[in-house]
Write a structure and sequence with these properties.
The chain is α+β, with helices and mostly antiparallel strands. The chain has two helices and three strands; from the N terminus they run βαββα. The chain has a three-stranded antiparallel beta sheet, covered by helices on one side. Helix 1 packs across helix 2. The model has no long low-confidence stretch (mean pLDDT 93).
């Protein structure tokens, strides 16, 4: 059994975030697999894990990456 989560993000608002963390999103996170796709207006992040513990850890990692980018962007302003 696999556990999966997908997140849809507005492309205009999150473009800088995605550019900053794309290399991390295109790699496996622990026991989880992540991938990213996009269309004209949205980014889609997909996380697949063998169990809920790994899924929670992957979601936590990605959330922290977004927070780091946000903090850096605020510091640069």
């Amino acid at each position: 059994m696999k556990f999966e989560v997908s997140v849809s993000l507005d492309k205009e608002r999150y473009r800088t975030y995605i550019q900053a963390i794309r290399p991390d999103l295109e790699q496996d996170v622990g026991r989880s697999t992540t991938r990213i796709s996009e269309d004209e207006s949205r980014f889609y992040i997909y996380i697949s894990s063998p169990d809920t513990v790994a899924l929670r850890a992957a979601v936590g990692s990605i959330t922290r990456w977004f927070k780091v980018v946000k903090d850096i962007m605020e510091e640069l302003d």
